[in-house]
Amino acid sequence: NAGVTQTPKFQVLKTGQSMTLQCAQDMNHEYMSWYRQDPGMGLRLIHYSVGAGITDQGEVPNGYNVSRSTTEDFPLRLLSAAPSQTSVYLCATRGRAGEQFFGPGTRLTVL
Amino acid sequence: AQRVTQPEKLLSVFKGAPVELKCNYSYSGSPELFWYVQYSRQRLQLLLRHISRESIKGFTADLNKGETSFHLKKPFAQEEDSAMYYCALSGRTNAGKSTFGDGTTLTVKP
Fold first, then answer.
1. Three-class SS of residue A39?
2. Nearest C-alpha of chain A: how many angstroms from B52?
3. Fewest CB within 10 angstroms: A101, B18, B26, B70, which?
4. Interchain proximity B49–A97, CB inside 8 Å
5. pLDDT-derived band of residue A2, with 50, 70 and 90 as boundaries?
6. Inter-chain contact A50–B43, Cβ cutoff 8 Å?
7. Are strands B10-14 and B104-109 parallel, antiparallel or unpaired?
8. Are B69 and B25 in contact (CB under 8 A)?
């Protein structure tokens, strides 16, 4: 089992460009979430989903969109990239005991 | 609102010394608490959870509801314990959203 996978591993964008970060899981978990990881700021929740067709905002949703058409996939879209979105993006699923399983991350730089 | 505070951004100890990483939380109700660890060039992973009361890699953490703390402890630190540690809380309400502390970077010196 691959667990949680994310693509790409690295990405450089110019200000104003859009892109989609991919996240897939084969753990059959209903709950998935996207975080951004910034030095000294911990992990901040961007969006989350409790199941296919259901998404909701986290604490820092501005500038990001998500959709959840299947249990396996939870893509994160950056609508118009800004330098403030330079970060490491982590996708995670959550098991029945509440523990989270993280992907390897996407390191995004916006110039 | 749920909140997790890790007061130390950096913690440095010598090999063989005891180590304690502090975590305080605020939550209305009974939270689920976790410690996650991220070793260099590895993904973030679960270290332990309060509900299982287990010891992983020599680490333990006790939930103190009176002090609203969930400190992580190890009696004898090893160099391979050097990593970033995050304390996290999952609420049973609020759609079970998780809140993470800012993290503590632990360095164990030889």
1. coil
2. 10
3. B18
4. yes
5. confident
6. no
7. parallel
8. yes
Report which of B40, B46, B33, B60 is spatially closest to residue A100, judged by C-alpha positions. Answer: B46
Buried b (16+ CB within 10 A) or exposed e, A70-88: ebbebbbebeebeeebbbb
Question: Prior bond to A8 cis, omega within 30?
Answer: yes
What is the rounded average pLDDT of the residues B85-94? 81
Taking the CA atoms of B99, B32, A27 and B72 in sequence, report the sign of the dihedral they define. Answer: positive
Beta bridge partners, B14, equal: B109
Contact: B97, A45; criterion CB under 8 Å = yes
Q: Which member of B34, B44, B103 has the closest CB to residue A90?
A: B44
State pLDDT tens for residues A12-65: 999 999 999 999 999 999 999 999 999 888 899 999 999 999 999 999 999 999
Output Rg (C-alpha) for chain A, integer angstroms. Answer: 13
Mean pLDDT value across chain B: 91
Q: Which of A21, A32, A17, A107 is nearest to A71 (CA)?
A: A32
Q: Are strands A54-57 and A42-51 parallel, antiparallel or unpaired?
A: antiparallel
Q: Say yes or no for a CB contact (<8 Å) between A43 and B45.
A: no
Determine the Cα angle at B107 with ends B72 and B99, to 5°: 45
Higher-pLDDT residue of A2 and A37 is A37
- Chain B within 8 Å of A96 (Cβ-Cβ)? no
